[in-house]
Amino acid sequence: MTDNTLYEEQTAQKLLLWEKELLKPPSMLERTSKSISTRINTIIPDKVHQALTTAVKGIVQTSLFTMDYIPKNQPLRGASLADCDIRAEELLSLYKKIAAAEGAGTGAGGIMLGLVDFPVLIGIKIKFLFELAHAYGYSTTNYRERLFILYVFQLAFSSQSKQLRLLDIVKTWEEKAGSLPPKSDQVDWRQLQQEYRDTIDFRKMLQMIPGIGAVVGAWANYGLLDELGQTGMNAYRMRRLQDKDASYNAD
């Protein structure tokens, strides 16, 4: 057993509550929403699915498998978990404001700009996760760290049926990382885009309604970044606590 600080012990307890909340049975509203989304997916032409899949794949691959999104600041090494959380909260506050401003701008433009918002928002989210990794001391110059970001992204925006498997990967990352595919070729990109779109559909559809699009766009993007932030911070908190355990046991 490691010699954890009080803050770390409290964080570990909060993580257990978060996992329990994440995996509790979906509510009737969530089940109804998923059922509607599934029906919508069956009537959308396949060429539209293909176009969205290609867009998501291109955006995520560019973000994760090039050097474009790597932060200029060095990873925060040697900091306490409490200090990392402070930095993470600062980043989340900043990126929620950025996302809200972007959503308000595109929401005011109706359907066409609403469609533009889709890839821009993904880029903002991925950039935030890169910054978040550095806040917790993990360097995104490492390919495996960028792959971890992809799993965190999916965990935040997947249905509960997929979240259990994704949470297991995130929780046991050091064990799983070595056996995962070295490249993104085995990622089910169509499933990723459908899960992502189903998760944000209702809020983003409201954004395209004339007259209220700007307000809804800001609200939707702010909320989506907040959800991603909580998932991302908890994922990295888990890793920090596990890394401390591993270091302690190795001594």
Q: How is the biggest beta sheet arranged?
A: none
* Number of DSSP strand runs: 0
**SS strand fraction:** under 5%
Rg, alpha carbons: 19 Å
Topology order in helix (H) and strand (E) letters: HHHHHHHHHH
**Parts with pLDDT < 50 across at least 5 consecutive residues:** 107-114, 247-251
Mean pLDDT: 77
Query: How many domains, as an integer?
Result: 1
Separation, N- and C-terminal Cα atoms: 12 Å
Secondary structure category: mainly alpha
Structure in words:
- The protein is mostly helical and 251 residues long.
- Helices cover 76% and strands 0% of the residues.
- It is globular.
- The chain starts with 5 loop residues before the first helix and ends with a helix.
List its salient traits.
251 residues; disordered C terminus; 76% helix; 10 helices; mainly alpha
Topology of helices and strands:
Elements: H1 6-22, H2 28-43, H3 46-64, H4 81-107, H5 110-135, H6 143-156, H7 160-171, H8 173-176, H9 189-207, H10 213-250
Helix pairs in contact: 1-10, 2-9, 3-5, 3-9, 4-5, 4-10, 5-6, 5-10, 6-7, 6-10, 9-10
Brief rundown of the structure:
This is EcsC family protein. By secondary structure, the protein is mainly α.
